[in-house]
Amino acid sequence: MRLCVFITSSLSALVISQPTFAQSSAANNEIVVTGQRAQQANAIAEKRSALGIIDVASADEIGQLPDNNVAEVVERLPGVGVQYDQGEGRFVSIRGVPAELNGYTVNGFELGNPDGDTRALPLDVISGQLLNRIEVSKVKTSDLLGQGIGGTINLVTQTAFDFDRPFIFSANGKVGYQELREGSQPIEGDVTIGGRFGADEEFGILLGASYSDRTFTSFGFFPDDWFEVPEAARGALPSNIKYTDYRLNRERIGASGSLDWRGGATELYIRGIYSIFKEDEYRQRLRIDFDDAVLDPGGVTGSATDTEQRSDLRLEQKEKSVLAIMAGGSSEIGSDWIIDYGAAFVHNEVREPNQSWQFRGNPGPVSLDFSDRLYTVIPDNGFLEPSDLGFRSFTAQDDSGDEDIWQGRLDFTRNLALGEDSFLKFGANIRLTDKSFDAETANYGRGDADNRFTLDGLSGPDVTVFPRSGRGYRITPVIDEFLIQDFTNANLNGPLFVFDDGDTLEDGTLDDFSLDENIYAGYMMANLDFGEIAVTAGLRVERTELDITGFRLDEETTTVLPATERKRYTDFLPSIVVRISPADDVIFRAAYSRSIGRPQYADLSPGGAISFDLSDTGIVEGSASLGNADLDPFVADSFDMTAEWYFAPGGLLSLGAFAKFIDNPIFTETLTLFDTSFAGRDYDILRFSQPQNAEQGDIIGLEAAYQQQFTMLPGLLSGLGVNLNVTFIDSNLRVPDRKNGGFPEQSDLLWGAQLFYQKGPVEASVAYNHTGRAPIGISGAPVTDEYNDDLRRLDAKIAFDVTDNIRIFAEGKNLTDEPTRQYQGEDFRDRVIQQERYGRTYYAGVSVRW
Where does the record locate the signal sequence feature (predicted)? Predict the structure, then answer.
């Protein structure tokens, strides 16, 4: 086991919700500061009082920077990396751990996932404007769920008791301008209303709603399939070039509500949150394949004659929704006992219909030029005309998935007569999940020689895309979406579109599954407060019972058979946290904890494809690619140490380190078996692939964070403050027949810097975030591994209080016009497989609050 000496961080927050106006009031000679400073101080207080190690994004900070969703909010916390899709944050990794191995909860109840085959919750589904705070628990105590090797993201919804006044009303609205999509005006807005009532204000009700609508464009450059060529300037050549015009509309609708009652020793609540994410996507792409490139001396330029030009159009609609309803409360019994209880229902769903068309032709010789990282391939005789591109394929996809989760929990806390905060706590919870995913794709090919058609009469005006500012690529010819849809609807049942039974059966079979996954858990823990030293120790036991059905396709007989598997396992998850407070403003923490990460649904499904082929020589060959319901979960033993100095109001210096030793990482094993039998058939040669558990992996890292509000400075300078964090991570994943490498989504370096200002009616922030390069996944060989390159974001916002209740603001997002970039091969950043540009976005808006 590797010995690690740490220096952790966990700076608390810098995150964003409804604006809180800067104001001060005198009461008993005390100055009360609100606004960004107050909320950052609240987040620090949450971190300071936690039993484990957490970071908090306070609700009233959500909105201080132009973040689109929850993923972009938590990115500003230390140790958090985010994968972006179309310029918006989506998947979150914590301390180098991939998104699918982390936990996601709302008010402590598991949130599940609308996506079909993964446990990685796409956090772009949820807007942050309806939340009280976002908690990222990096070291958990035994009363928290076992899932979450990197940590658990807990979304805490608002209640009327979170505010300091009996009536609450706030509304925010803004309209924007987008650099790459002139004429499109994104809009966002949210409203919260409610209050407390009753003789003693014992009742509270709060309702909230949010809406955003954004139509935008992105330009992309997407070559792939680089293969090694020693004489090439980059040591390799791609097999194609692709550039793409994306036009998207993204709409989010959210709602939340809470009804609370507090009377004497009992508190009761009913709460709910709903969010729906809709996306309409138009993707026009030009592709040129060149398989026989010949390079000139120097390997920078060259030519190819075996070529193909393709025009593709994809129209895709996505609709993902999350609904969570919960009820519960707590009761004090006497002076020593507290009982907490609750139940929840969560429903998630995804609907994803889409259509795609492809036309192909031969442009003849092409010239290659690799002198720029975004290289060029130009046909010597010009790009093909619409009449030279023949129809090749049409697909109509209709995927859908549903998930229902029922949960219940019961916790007992007994105060102990040992120190001020000593207690014994024990309890149990249950989670029952029913999940299914159904993929359907109808595939059509071209007709015979007498029944074929071209793009002639179905094309539209050419477009030029700019994956990098100042460098344009022409897409020609363009498939007109309305003409091709009308033509397809009129001819789909005729001889021009030939239905492909085999591909349709395969696409409608291999990804389908249904499962029941039930978790039964119990725990016991104690917090012993000895004054300067406090110890929290406990044990959690989780029993997982999985029944999963997939579908196996025999490609020879086109037979589809259901395959059902069961998996039962029990995990024992101990934890201990020691806190030492040698002074009122200093805390040291040392912790050990064990957590799990359950396998991906796609890996667990026992479905797959089986092929059989009898060669001319009489040798029976075949292949089988299946899931594996017998996979064990990832199990991580984690060690953490932190030192936290709360040196001033709103000030924090945090240093620390962490180490995670992870058993049972999952990889796809590919074997060639000889003289074997499988599924009732004998094979001379069988190529078999299936997810398997590997040996071990480990992640170690250092975190540091610093936050200060410079109130000691004179005059206007006293409004300044700074928030800095940095995380260094190193991982080692051992996979058979591969050299050791890093975990997917694990960046070696994460850092962020924010300068903020609050003085009088002015409040402003500018933030820069850097996410270092990270592997996307593990492929069959290192040379084909794919990586996300460094991603840097610069955002800013300034606000001015017109009155005590009205604020106007302006904000800018992605001010450096940073693209996302991916490349192939660990050490070859010039082997680009994606560069996608989104441009800058600007907003102006107004906030009202009473």
Answer: 1-22
